[in-house]
Amino acid sequence: MIKAAEKIWLEAAISYLAKHFEPIFLPSHDLSHHLRVWRISKMILKEIAVQNQHIDQDLAGAVMLASLFHDAGMVVTRKPEHGAESTVVYKDFICRGNVPKPTLDDHILEAIEFHDRKEEFFYQPFTFEDIPDVQTIISIADDIDALGTIGIYRYAEIYMVRDISAHSLGIRILENVTSRYNNFVKACSLFPALIERTKDKYREIVNFFDLYNQQLLLEPVPEEVTSGPIGVTNLIKEFSVNGKIRPENFPENLSEHEPPGFVADFFNKLAECLDEN
To answer: Dihedral angle at the C-alpha atoms of 221, 227, 232, 238, nearest 10 degrees?
Structure first.
């Protein structure tokens, strides 16, 4: 059922979104992020389908389109409330008439608009009997893409684009990622394999920003730091936010800075993770 849904909408959606994202530089939320979220959503659908008989082509198509369009509004606004703008983009895609309107269109629009609402009541726990909630699936897939090495980069970039200060960055990210992960664990309590696959990535991002906050206590001027986690975030700001260099190209731009091993190791791992995904 997933391949059937992809055959109907995937190629047209990717073509549309590639042009849509052209005017902006925001690797943390560009087309590559949306494709990762769809791949993660597919993994979730397949895992749920083992115990739940309600996974069909309509649901797969709805999850796919919500995954692919959820952050499309970032072209217009970087604010957390970008979901409403994303629904405008999705509606334009459907209204062009190049693809059929999905059966679960209302569910898609709701999932796109509210995907970034991370309060617990927006996560509907998966069960063996009920039809899985589209918004919950893409919210969890989005949460998983915010973990690990890629998640560290994505959080740092978008929070700095939103002018979160160096002194607040680590605390704000830890608060957000912890809340999201706890909601994910509760929603997936009957599907422990999903949780098990993400534990190491969650620990990685938490450990990184715990270390960031510890380093912050020792650095009176964090903006000038070139080592450790703060050195990583400073270079993300210099390379990505200000320099418009894509993260997969960070390693080749490190030589002139000659950063300590921690920073170089992080960016080499980031490039490998992005290449794998």
So the answer is: 60
Going residue by residue through the chain, which has 277 residues, state the pLDDT in tens, using 9 for 90 and above. 899 999 999 999 999 999 999 999 999 999 999 999 999 999 999 999 999 889 999 999 999 999 999 999 999 887 777 888 999 999 999 999 889 999 999 999 999 999 877 666 689 999 999 999 999 999 999 999 999 999 999 999 999 999 999 999 999 999 999 999 999 999 999 999 999 999 999 999 999 999 999 999 999 999 999 999 999 999 999 999 999 999 999 998 886 655 558 999 999 999 999 988 7
Count: domains in the chain: 2
Contact 75, 100 (CB under 8 A): no
Task: State in Å, rounded, how far the first CA of the chain is from the last one.
Answer: 23
Which amino acid does the sequence have at 172?
Answer: R
Other CB atoms within 10 Å distance of the CB of residue 116: 18
Whole-number Cα distances in Å, 22 to 27, 136, 151, 197:
11, 29, 22, 33
* Cα(220)–Cα(9) distance, integer angstroms: 52
Structural tokens at position 186 = 């509760």
How far apart CA 110 and CA 5 sit, in angstroms, is 19
Please indicate, yes or no, if residue 42 is contained in any of the structural domains.
Answer: yes
Q: CA 44 to CA 171: how far, in whole Å? A: 29
Residue 60 lies in a domain: yes
Task: Map residue 277 onto helix, strand or coil.
Answer: coil
Smallest CA-to-CA distance from 91 within 161, 16, 147, 30 is with 16
- Tokens 């849509």 -> residue: 20
Q: Which domain holds residue 234?
A: 146-277
